[in-house]
Write a structure and sequence with these properties.
- A hairpin with a 2-residue loop joins β4 and β5 (94-100).
- The chain starts with a helix and ends in a 5-residue tail after the last helix.
- The longest helix has 22 residues, at 2-23.
- It has a three-stranded antiparallel beta sheet with strand order 5-4-7, with helices on one face. It has a two-stranded antiparallel sheet with strand order 1-2. A two-stranded antiparallel sheet has the order 3-6.
- α1 (2-23) runs antiparallel to α2 (55-75).
- The radius of gyration is 33 Å and the shape is rod-shaped.
- The protein contains three helices and nine strands; from the N terminus they run αββαβββββββα.
- It is of the alpha+beta class.
Amino acid sequence: MVGLIFGIIFLLTGIALGVFFFTHKEVSYEQNRFGGYQRDEDGNRIQKAETYPFKKFAILTMVVGILFAILLAWLGCIASVPTGHTGVVTTFGKVEDATFDAGFNMKAPWQKVVTMDNRVQKATTTLACFSSDIQEVTIAYTLNYQIDKANAQEIYRSVGAAY
């Protein structure tokens, strides 16, 4: 989304500068031998030449602005999902049914991709309990778990990213 906004800013800046360069003109006036300007019978200065010095930069500026806008919009459409993760697609906070696999994926610029780790993870906890002859025993309990790729969007929708 940020890339799309910057792309629009570059596009508008390039067009505005291109229009300025295209329409900016410089006028030179005829001078007399004393350094003053020659005037016609109405008292107005006599124009010698009218030039557009930045006209050659006008098209270049517009093209560069348009290319930057296209580049930033295209970069806003790419989502990278690391290996061992699943990408959950959200549109303005609403979880979509589609998920992305690892690698580069194409999305709309207004969509966001949240990565969910679907590798085998480990949760360890220590429990204190009593044996049958009433002696205190400490147990370290470890659980290995993994989320299913197909249900990643449902887990994100109901539990969140900190599952």
